[in-house]
Specification:
Layout lengths: L6 H14 L3 E4 L4 H14 L3 E2 L9 E3 L13 E3 L4 H4 L4 E2 L2 H12 L7 E9 L8 E7 L2 H10 L1 E2 L1 H7 L6 E6 L9 E5 L4 E5 L4 H4 L2 H17 L2 E3 L1 E7 L5 E7 L6 H5 L5 H6 L2 E6 L3 E5 L5 E4 L4 E5 L5 H10 L5 E3 L2 E3 L4 E3 L11 E2 L18 E5 L16 E9 L9 E3 L3 H9 L2 E3 L11 E3 L12 H13 L6 E5 L18 H10 L9 E3 L2 E3 L14 H8 L3 H19 L5 H19 L1
Parallel strand pairs: 1-6, 3-19, 4-5, 4-10, 7-9, 9-11, 14-24, 24-28
Antiparallel strand pairs: 2-3, 6-7, 6-8, 10-11, 12-16, 13-14, 13-15, 16-17, 17-24, 18-23, 19-23, 20-21, 20-22, 25-28, 26-27, 29-30
Helix pairs in contact: 2-5, 12-13, 12-17, 16-17
The chain binds oxalic acid and manganese (II) ion (MN).
């Protein structure tokens, strides 16, 4: 039975039902009972495998089709009336054509199936900063994941009332045909359509599709920012608390940084890290002229491989109950899960991520296998997690995976320079998206796959936001991934990243500590990074803090080429001025 009198919602649901012809329509009310029933139905049909109730209570394993294991950026489209408005970085389809294409693919595709209607809220239900979506889907897996990742149920419809507007999200699994897979965004219509996939990033439409692509467009029009950023809180020994938002491309350690456990000596001194969010931040200018950030999600859709007690204890704890695992390996001895890096040796009697006995060839878990875990499970979740206004930002960090060139950390000289640094980000690719891994690609502000409009306009929007700030956060760039001549990582990363966070926050506020000015920005004086109790020599630290002007001359040429050839038009003058300054600085300092 329909749970609302909102005409637009009812019309949307009816139109989808007429098109797809499901046998049954179920409205998701968000009750524990309904969710329990759906889980048992999914177990009966084999869509979910129930894991050991004693060791992993209320946890399940799901396997996707082998052709459907990651976001598909080349099949993800921004469908704006004017092609130019989508920008060169996005793939574009004419909206009329896209609607037609998707309708023909989805027509009658739910015959013999159930259509679920999921009302959900990105952000706390009822907050003026939250956005409501309605996702139509024929996948129980989607319903159950959305129930972890967002706030789901009737309260969202009540919030909409009779006339409130919402993002229309339509998903149909169809035949999971990779050649007819389309992830379509219509920012001008506040609509998303996803067909022929059942993998998280393509089908949990509240996440990348709404909270980044559509929200970035809404943010441009409404004067706020939707960013691919974690949010963390740092408590100092004197009790003061500061917040940081940080953007990294997918699978570059974002979840690890968001839930970092500081080294022992820091814990002993009273430092503490709390996680407000691990993937997405919605950021607004507060009345006090500072930036305030909320995490619109309610759970973590984290990369499993590499997660273990040492690398991310908090994330691992978060997966211990109420979690859905996707494409990890199954230990048939005790019905628990496993992935590369969880323990040193792979236990015997495993089924790999496709469900076949694992014989040691290839990986047991898919490199992009995931856990969908409720945020409340995380031992370090912030008390501000459900704050409606969010948290004030002292610093913004950009980062990527760079074997050379980019130092461990450096600081922008101004807001505009920080925007330039974000716009010039590049990183080696990972398994989070289909395609080759390890290839260097530009990924401005880690938003290349997620900006719902022209990247030049997106940079301009950042510049505009900066003009409204009385107290802008300081902007930094970090690189945990510098390698030595043998290809080994020099900086240990993980908990030791706290040492860099400490320096970053000491550079924020009214009495910042000193730093060295270089052609690219401010870098720490080596003495100001605490390497006590670390297996890292001062020389190695100096090496990863070094700025090689020749490499940066090349980097500047590369950025210039990227601006001209890829982004094309609409890049704000402020960014060209920063590029010119970088070139001048590298040249001057070289001659001098
Ligand atoms: C993610 C991604 O799933 O960025 O968070 O791909
Ligand atoms: Mn992400």
């Amino acid at each position: 039975m329909a749970l609302t009198k909102n005409k637009e919602v009812l019309e949307f649901v009816n139109t989808c039902a007429e098109l797809t012809q499901p046998d049954k329509i179920i409205w998701i009310d968000g009750s524990a009972n309904q969710i329990k029933q759906l889980k048992s139905e999914a177990v009966k049909s084999g869509e979910l495998i129930k894991l050991n109730e004693h060791l992993l209570p209320d946890c399940y394993l799901h396997r996707t089709a082998v052709n459907d294991v990651a976001r598909v950026e080349d099949r993800t489209f921004i469908c704006t009336a004017n092609k130019e408005d989508a920008g060169n970085v996005n793939f574009w389809l004419d909206p009329k054509l896209a609607y037609h294409l998707a309708s023909e693919i989805a027509r009658a595709s739910m015959k013999g199936r159930t259509m679920y209607v999921i009302p959900f809220s990105m952000g706390v239900v009822g907050s003026e900063f939250s956005k409501i979506g309605i996702e139509i889907t024929d996948s129980i897996y989607v319903v159950l994941n959305m129930n972890i990742m967002t706030r789901v149920g009737k309260s969202c419809l009540d919030r909409l009332g009779k006339t409130g507007s919402f993002t229309k999200c339509f998903h149909a699994k169809c035949n999971v045909d990779a050649d007819k897979r389309y992830i379509l965004h219509f920012p001008e219509d506040n609509t998303i359509i996803s067909v022929n996939s059942a993998y998280g990033g393509n089908v949990l439409l509240g996440k990348k599709c709404l909270a980044l692509r559509i929200a970035s467009y809404l943010g441009k029009n409404e004067g706020w920012l939707a960013e691919h950023m974690l949010i963390l809180g740092v408590t100092f020994p004197d009790g003061e608390k500061k917040y940081i938002a940080a953007a990294f491309p997918s699978a570059c350690g974002k979840t690890n940084l968001a839930m970092l456990i500081p080294p022992k000596s820091y814990l002993e001194r009273g430092y503490k890290i709390e996680c407000v969010g691990d993937d997405i931040a919605w950021i607004r200018v507060g009345e006090d002229g500072r930036l305030w950030a909320v995490n619109p999600e309610n759970g973590f859709f984290g990369v499993a491989p590499g997660t273990n007690e040492r690398s991310n204890f908090n994330a691992l704890q978060a997966t211990k109950r109420g979690t859905i695992f996707t494409n990890v390996a199954l230990n048939t001895d005790d019905m628990t899960v496993w992935w590369e890096g969880l323990s040193e040796h792979c236990p015997p009697n495993m089924l790999d991520w496709t469900g076949k006995p694992y014989d040691g060839s290839g990986t047991a878990a898919h490199p992009n296998s995931r856990f969908t875990a409720p945020a409340v499970n995380c031992p370090c979740v912030s008390p501000d997690f459900n704050s409606e206004t969010g948290v004030p930002l002292s610093a913004i960090i950009f980062g990527g995976r760079r074997a050379t060139t980019t130092p461990l950390v450096y600081q922008a000289k101004s807001w505009e320079h920080g925007v330039f640094i974000g716009s010039a980000m590049s990183s080696e690719t990972t398994a989070a998206a289909s395609g080759q891994t390890g290839v260097l690609r530009h990924d401005p502000m880690a938003m290349k796959p997620f900006a719902g409009y022209h990247m030049g306009d997106y940079f301009a929007h950042w510049i505009e936001i900066g003009k409204q700030l009385k107290k802008p956060p300081e902007i930094f760039n970090v690189n945990w991934f510098r390698q030595d001549a043998d290809g080994k990582f020099i900086w240990p990363g993980f908990g030791d990243n706290m040492r860099v966070i400490e320096w970053i926050l000491k550079r924020c506020g009214d009495n910042p500590i000193g730093a060295e000015e270089t052609p690219i920005g401010f870098v720490p004086k080596p003495d100001d990074i605490n390497i006590e109790d670390m297996n890292l020599s001062v020389d190695a630290l100096k090496e990863i803090l070094s700025v090689d002007k020749d490499k940066w001359i090349k980097e500047a040429e590369e950025i210039e080429k990227y601006y001209a050839e890829t982004i094309g038009s609409r890049i704000p003058d402020e960014l060209y001025a920063c590029l010119e300054e970088l070139k001048r600085n590298c040249k001057n300092k070289k001659e001098g």
